[in-house]
Amino acid sequence: xxxxxxxxxxxxxVLHGLGVVLGWLIYLAPxxxxxxxxxxxxxxxxxxxxxxxxxLLRQSISESGKAIMELLPLWLGADKKVLKWVxxxxxxxxxxxxxxxxxxxxxxxxxxxxxxxxxxxxxxLHPFTIMYKPSPQPVLDTLMLAGRQRGQTKLVxxxxxxxxxxxxxxxxxEGIGILPDHVASSGDGVWAPxxxxxxxxxxxxxxxxxxxxxxAFFVAAERLGWGRGYHLHVYPLDDALPEEKxxxxxxxxxxxxxxxxxxxxxxxxxxxxxxxxxxxALPGAPASTLC
Length: 291
Description:
This protein has a single domain (2-266), classed as Glycerol-3-phosphate (1)-acyltransferase (3-Layer(aba) Sandwich), CATH 3.40.1130. It has twelve helices and nine strands. The protein has a seven-stranded mixed sheet with strand order 1-9-8-2-5-3-4. A two-stranded antiparallel sheet has the order 6-7. By secondary structure, it is α/β, with parallel strands linked by helices. The protein starts with a helix and ends in a 29-residue tail after the last helix.
């Protein structure tokens, strides 16, 4: 822990430089990491004639390492130091307008750039609630808890009690954060296309919005070059999400795809987004068809 705290004091440009090295070391190490990263990048459809897939892959490798190293100051550094790294925002006034209109706010934050800093930034301004799933590694769990419960940010468990906590926060006209591109657990999602392939997609955003009338926004924390900090981009969901679950999931995935296209190298392509959760039938198969 002492070493981690010392590393957390390093300037952000140095940490990002170390992250580039770390990203390549992880990529070159034996295991599924490199295969999954390559497969997801090459299958994304983002490699148009104007964008070389190999170049995008190299960028993604470097950005994945930066994402790891920047967690140290985000979780262990001083609040004031971390918040100064948010160099600018685009569209944040739309969030302020929704709050001024008396609405709860749902920040839909895909795994893009430094998504961890979004909760810290919002929580430094207003009450903010996010779900939390304990890590099986005690050290990592301690770091996550300390790093995420800052300012006015509150953590709730990733279960039905946590869902009730999110619902209560929205009814108090507060803000909540949801990761829309993780694999839903059995019974909590539906299959919907994501970059041309089926992905088991959470349906929570639509449910919470329907019950509370909250305003929803996609938010991405762009990682600026040379360790200069972060730029928060806000993209509103102009219309309420459909009531039908699959239609709502398709709309969410389309929104995530649109944001990823702005920052393709900074998306977490290492995540196994298309895996099938246990107890869930493959898309198009009878519910009893499991293996």
